[in-house]
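haha ok so turns out i had the wrong file open the whole time. this is the CORRECT one, sorry everyone. sequence first:
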Amino acid sequence: MVRPKGTGRSKIEIKEIQNKGAMYCTFTKRRNGLCSKARELSTLCGAQVAAIVFSPKNKMYTFGEPSVDSVVNRFLHEQQQRQPLNRGGQKKKKKTTTPFLSDECIEGFELHELKHCAALMEEFVKKLEERLADVVYRRVQVKDLISLIK
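then structure:
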């Protein structure tokens, strides 16, 4: 039996999708594929995996094996155990307790690098506040539903 000629799987150009509907559809499919691959990696290799993805509408999706919290906590703990490198590539003697905000980590940064870090932190705090508000809102909705059922 001869298969008909078709396009089959073809390579696509990697660029931003302009059509919003197609972009949301592609995001959902790719996000599900990412979580599937992360689950496979964890199952096959015994790896601890966490994925945090923000959608084009700034909605947060997470996947973690065994859980996102345990993987992130392990990552942060191991970051604290490492000694930061100075500009010469030599390890500094003093360990940091908070590697992302310590004076030792940002000691050699230029002004533009510090401004960039500050902007990233502000953006992170904003998204964290939005996520917290979303979680609180959902919990209030659940409590209201439970009270209606009773």
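The longest strand covers residues 49-54.
again sry for the mixup
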